[in-house]
Design brief:
alpha+beta; Protein Transport Mog1p, Chain A; 2 domains; 3-stranded antiparallel sheet; 6 helices
Length: about 300
Amino acid sequence: MTRGTCPSASAGLSGSMLATLVMAFAAPTPVPQTRVTLDPPEGFVLSEQFPGFTDGAMASIAVTELRNVPASDLAPEMTAEALATKGMKELERAQVGGATLIRVEQTVQGVTVEKWMAIQGDEGSTVFVVGTMPAGDARLPSLRKALETVTLAELTSADVPEAMKYAITPGGGLAQAGTMGNMQMFTLGGKAPPLPDDEPRFMAGPSMGAADVEDLEAFARARLAGLPFEKARNVQVERVTVAGREGVELQALATHPKTRVDRMIYQLVLPGSGGTYFIAVGIGADRKEWKVFQEMGRSLRFDLD
């Protein structure tokens, strides 16, 4: 069974107004910018920061779509052994309809959490829905119930956002590995994620909403600080013009929180209209990879036929 998508209900609404509307109307709820519909647990509202839901505190349900990545390609990456290499201990696994549900425990920045992950899709795309709560939370069973309600609308050409009309020329052995929401992913040989921590990756795409980008450099630095790395340092900022837009390029070193190994970060931010922006992020091991990321970022082209 499939359900159609609908425009984002959050346009023009404040966070409190959106919460009121979501609570007032019964589930199921379509997740904007995805083809996923699900029944969120009580108290969860649509997030304004990512595709999915949040309870406003420590719990969330995040939706990720990997378009052009067959679900079968990811099966070897989701075994208990493979998950363990990423710091996740498998607690439970089940098959519900066409979805694989996996419950894991993971320690993130000193906090132990439990996650229910639902993975489903076909040869055209894969969808991940990940619910996260603190370990031992009494509401954890509600996450599984929510993930059991996931349905997918049929994927058609109309699902490709208008804002995806851009292109980037890959280099350094990177190739397109599908899309996540509005973001194109590039990995070595086009390998599907999850990836080894030491492999380079590059992601680029338009924002899903508006933001305060009046001070572009400050905004870019804030986005850099929001990446899942620690101790960003040696930050270098350069004003650039790419695809006819004036933006900023950042180069920095940051520490991977698990491996404690330094990574070279590339970031390009270009403002759009009405507070929207385009962002590209590359993560690699050395200056050579950073140069590849820079060349990819500067190859950006918009308004493709």
